[in-house]
Amino acid sequence: MGDDDTLPAGRRRDKLIATKEAWARQGRLLTGTAADPARDRLPPGQRLVRDWPILDLGTQPRVTPAKFRLDIDGAVRRPLSLRWDEYLTLPRTELVSDIHCVTQWSRYDNRWSGVAARTLLAMVEAKEEARHVVLHAHDGYTTNVRLGDFDQPDVLLADSWNGATLSPEHGGPLRVVIPRLYFWKSAKWVRRVEITIADRPGFWEQRGYHNTGDPWSEQRYG
Ligand SMILES: Nc1nc2c(c(=O)[nH]1)N[C@H]1C(S)=C(S)[C@@H](COP(=O)(O)O)O[C@H]1N2
Ligand SMILES: [Mo]
Predict the structure, then answer these.
(1) Do the beta carbons of residue 176 and residue 186 sit within 8 Å?
(2) Ligand 1 center–CA 187 separation, angstroms
């Protein structure tokens, strides 16, 4: 099994996990169509919401500045391990993007600020053979993305949303935002960005969810 064995079983939302695994088996919400991101803003099968739902496995860690640590390591030449005060000295980026969650809701125009993935990648220098990324979070959650999908100008590690400090419920102090993939790829409470040579499926990817997760071609399950 994967890293999710470390999830505190007691507070884990086992019913929610079982339901979402069943959705994957049933192919729930699949419309069998594709959309063109250049023309259609809403991906197939999605529904627009105005609020911002909270989704996670039930344990919302409180990551204080003292507990904060961000490691960027693995198949890199110059691994990094940052304390909160060190993280705060990095060059910052602000971006507006849409959220598309695999459970059907989408939310437009989220203004994120934090540090661009490319800023961090430039600091660690991925090795030639590096192809994938595993994101590890303080609640034991993991998710995998291709290095090519992480190494994009609109991917960032965000500590602020719509002008305010990112709340702990939504992954504060620091979460990943990968706007062109379903939102389960955007790890909350990020602890470690592990650059890898081989692909390693994360929590939902081991439970029937798509390895890539492109909302425009409806890669919900697989
Ligand atoms: N650490 C962590 N990150 C996570 C999750 C989680 O359970 N733990 N859930 C994912 C899922 S399934 C979704 S839809 C989004 C939800 O983010 P939100 O609660 O800010 O809307 O976080 C993703 N990142
Ligand atoms: Mo999700």
Answers:
(1) yes
(2) 6
Burial 126-143 (b: 16+ CB within 10 A, else e): beeebbbbbbbbbbbbbb
Q: What is the pLDDT of residues 55-67, one digit of tens each?
A: 999 999 999 999 9
Taking CA atoms only, the protein residue closest to ligand 1 atom 2 is: 188
Q: Give me ligand 2 centre to Cα 39, in Å.
A: 25
Structure tokens of 54?
């909270």
Residues 134 and 185: their CA atoms lie apart, in Å, by 10
- At 5, the pLDDT band (50, 70, 90 cuts) reads very low
Q: For the chain, how far is it from start to end, CA to CA, in angstroms? A: 18
Q: Please name each of the domains of the chain with its CATH number.
A: 3-217 (3.90.420.10)
Q: Tell me, what's the pLDDT at 6?
A: 55
